[in-house]
Structures are given as structure tokens and as C-alpha cells.
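User: Hey, my collaborator sent me this sequence without any context and asked if I could get a structure. I don't really work with proteins. Can you help?
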Amino acid sequence: MMTDTIADMLTRIRNCARIERPFVDMPSSKIRRGIAQVLKDEGFIWDFEEVDTVPSKTIRLHLKYGPNGEKLITRIDRVSRPGCRRYTSYKHLKPILGGMGIQILSTPRGIISDRRARAEKVGGEVLALVH
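Assistant: No problem. I've predicted the 3D structure and written it out in C-alpha cell form, which is a compact way to encode the shape of the chain:
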């Protein structure tokens, strides 16, 4: 049984980005689809899709690399953990690496990036840091 599915997702992405695989598969869930949508909207992955497999659906993320094979995801970390939740207001969200990175938040309006959270003036639980 897996207790932290978000950490599992981030670890799979981190490992596949290190060996420069074109895609990564993982079990699908609503929160994983939300994180994948944020990564797509912010330009860290090309696309994602849900594949019907047995016994449950699988989500496939198509990773994105630069024109010369540079990794776009150099670091991806879990911030809020099951044992220590991290919440923040939109006022305390600072740009990561001068705007080159993002924080992924779980808010009452769904899973969104820190840029969108500042624009909509909404805070929440900081799930991950990507740059």
C-alpha cells in the first residue's frame, strides 16, 4: 500500500528525467491529473494522457526536453508531506528562480501553480516545487 502518492509521482518523474526517457507511466488519480495539468500549462511536459489498463487507469506524461536535450525539470521536490503539512497565503508566494520555477498548490479552486494563485489571490497547501 502506498501512503504518499504525490511523492511517488514526483519520484517517477525525477527518475525518468534523469535518464531522459520520453514518457513516464503511473497509476491515475484526480490529484495526479491535476499536477500533470499544471506541469503541462507551465511548459514542463508536452502532454499527458489517460490509458485504460487493467485493473485501473494509467496516466502517461510525455516529458519535455530542450533542443539540445537539456532537461527542463532539473529539480522536483515534495514540500508538504503527510506528517508535516505546509500551508501558505498568496502573499507569501515568491517567484522561484526569478520565475523559472513553480510551486504547485492544492487550493479550494483546485490544483494550481503559484503564478495563478497570486493572480487569483488564493492560498493553500504547497504540494511540490519544480524547476
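In plain terms: DSSP finds three helices and eight strands in the chain. You can pass these C-alpha cells on to your collaborator as they are.
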